[in-house]
Amino acid sequence: MMAAKTEPSITELVGKVISDAQRLAIAQLALAKDEIGKAGSRIGAGAALGIAALSLISLATVFLLIALAYGLVQLGLQTWLGFLIVALLLILGAVITGLIARKKLLEVRSGTMTTIDELGKTASALGATDSESSGT
Questions:
Q1: What is the C-alpha separation between 86 and 94, in angstroms, rounded?
Q2: ∠ CA 53-56-62, rounded to 5°
Q3: Domain-located, residue 80
Q4: What is the pLDDT of residue 105?
Q5: In this structure, are residues 46 and 105 in contact, taking their beta carbons and an 8 Å threshold?
Q6: Per-residue pLDDT tens digits of the chain, which is 136 residues long
Q7: Looking at the domain assignment, is residue 49 inside a domain?
Q8: Alpha-carbon span 63 to 12, nearest angstrom
Q9: For the chain, how many structural domains are there in total?
Q10: Rounded to an integer, what distance in angstroms lies between the CA atom of residue 90 and that of residue 23?
């Protein structure tokens, strides 16, 4: 003779739903923490490399830039004009480097926003479920 299957009670079902929701929230928090940690590492590494590159380029090119300015003087320009042209080239290089750095930082931000949005949706859903169950 077969044993009769008993249906789980409402209390057991609600308990299982709450347990599943807690596990989901914990998993999403762990995912968010991991992604934010990786993004922070990428930002730090990118910033450090950018600063190092700018420093090395600045140090390595100082003498070349002075030589370029005096080369322009030898071509017949006044000294101040030769140095002004070199300064404008430096500003152009800084603008280009800054735009590249901005693009990299925006790429990191867009990747973490997906996780943050999903975490907010889960919190909202859990909040709605919690307020519905306390009202009955």
A1: 13
A2: 130
A3: yes
A4: 87
A5: yes
A6: 455 578 888 888 888 988 888 898 888 888 888 888 888 888 888 899 999 999 998 888 898 999 999 999 999 999 999 999 999 998 999 999 999 999 988 887 776 777 778 878 887 887 765 555 555 5
A7: yes
A8: 78
A9: 1
A10: 55
Q: Scanning the structure block, which residue is given the tokens 């909202």?
A: 124
* Burial class for 131, CB neighbours closer than 10 Å (0-12, 13-18, 19+): exposed
pLDDT for the residue 4: 58
Q: What is the pLDDT of residue 38?
A: 82
90, part of any domain: yes
Contact assessment for residue 116 and residue 103, using Cβ atoms and an 8 Å cutoff = no
pLDDT at 115: 75
Q: Which two tokens stand for residue 80?
A: 């101040």
Reported as half-sphere exposure (CB side, CA atoms, 13 A), residue 108 has a value of 17
Mention every residue, 6+ apart, whose C-beta is less than 8 A from residue 115: 28, 31, 32, 35, 36
Identify the residue whose tokens are 């071509």.
Answer: 75
